[in-house]
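Whether sequence alone determines local backbone shape is best considered at the level of individual chains. We regard such an encoding as a compact summary of how the chain folds. The sequence in question and its structure tokens are set out directly beneath this paragraph.
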Amino acid sequence: IQKLKISNFWTVISTDARVMFLHVVLDGCPTIKYSVVVEKHLTVKFFMAHAQMFKVGDYIVPSLIKDHVDVTFLLDKVEKFDETAKSFSYQDKVNMAVPFVLSTFNIVKREAPEEQADTLDFLCEQIRIFQTQSPKYSSTLLVFACLLYTLSSQAYNFLRNSSGLTLPHPTTVRRICPGPRKDSKDLGSKKSETHLLSYIRERVKHLAEHQRVVTLQMDEIELKEYCTSKAKSGSPEPITSVHVFMLQSVLTDNREVVHVLPVTKQTGVDELHSVVKKLILGLEKQGLTVIAVIADNNPTYKLVMSNFATPSPKLDIVYPHPTNCSRPLFFIIDPVHLLKCVRNNWICNQNLGRHLTFPDFGTTISAFKARDALTASYEAVQKFQNHQDPNMYKPRNAAMDRTFNPTRLERQSAEKLFATATAHALRAEMKNLSLEYAAGTATFVEIIAKWWSVVNVRTVNDTRMSQSELQSPITSMEGPQIEFLSEFIDWLDAWEEIDGVAGRLERDTCSALHLTCYSLIELTRYCLEELRLGTVLLGKFQTDRLQDRFGSHKVV
């Protein structure tokens, strides 16, 4: 600090852990306008008021400094920026204000209720779009635009021209979505085929090589509750729902909207299968490698995928690829949806106490019927939640009520229910609260929580608290994640072997879990051994990005 030549612009505060350079404005109530914080390990952060900024004008703030010269240079940049800001043009002021506003929104978002997070994301995107002349719309906003345009093109144009929102031009929307009131007979027309990938064709040109291994995700969004008018005689059938198709890079966060297909009651499985096949063939022609199709546990989607089997339809984990029958095309039922299905099966069980009788996971696998049978009681979970110790756990609130008394569509509630913290809390309190079947309930919660931790790894540097080997990216078929998924399949098989048990998962849920775990194992093998990807993130194989925003309009 003694070597630094600092002007009166700055006030310096030094502690053992950090040095803070503050510019204090004394007009009225003293406020900190700018601050530069240098930590003990020479990391540096720049703030405008309370918001962290990563640029000072055109200068990018380094994350690490080497010596006092770097500090002096940064402080001079901030001081000169403050002087020139007085003569900024309108656009300069916008460019300066937008990062500050976005940073403030991010701070607010950390403490916002879950139901408001989407609203804040939407506002942030509108602010970003306001700053640029050629906006790149997020996949979420594009899906929203397509849904609104499908419901009413007139309302869409009115809203877009009202200057209240910035939305894609109708031409852009029509390149993704065929538009409202399309007859199902038009799905296979030559015009429709030419139009099918007109939007994504331009988007994929800019993808790097490592972004080109992708999955095709499909999800259905229900619209009939918003369509109050009935079709007149001779007029096209009203739109009842849309199928949204997106691609997700296996190695990166890149995702794009591929197609939005409005459908009517007359749209059949064959037509939908034809569209899926054409999308895969079209994406492959654009230089992408489609390795899997992901959908929720929807009977229609299972029939659609069954039609890829030869010589006769059959539900399976892998099918001959449409572009080359020697290549595999894997099918995965969305793990996010399956997590909800397990929760719903448990909650909606009609037996007394809402019990599930399941085999112990830790018993030797050599003899299925020798496994101990345990009982998981949802009433034990509710009783614990109603009597929890406020000194040990968070007090009851709306979020907690949604966790233990959820609507059928709340993914976050399912994720919080099946958490190791829930299991530990049940074991800690089972004697104090006389919780019947608490031990078995905690075991069941732990099994599903462990499965979820394996299938939900999304980044290479996943830094979740209490991270175990199961919560790490997969780099080898000998890893603990593959071993656990194999044991989970055996556990499901053992569950099927238990005779005369009323409290069990629904057969459809159990078979979907079996299919997905088996498919994830073989897909991982293909990625590591055939594609030589080096790392596999199972959290990439979800339709979660669609469900986060539009899940409330889905049929589960």
User: Anything to note?
Assistant: The longest helix spans residues 507-530. The CA atoms of residues 251 and 430 lie 43 Å apart. The radius of gyration is 27 Å. The chain has a mean pLDDT of 81.
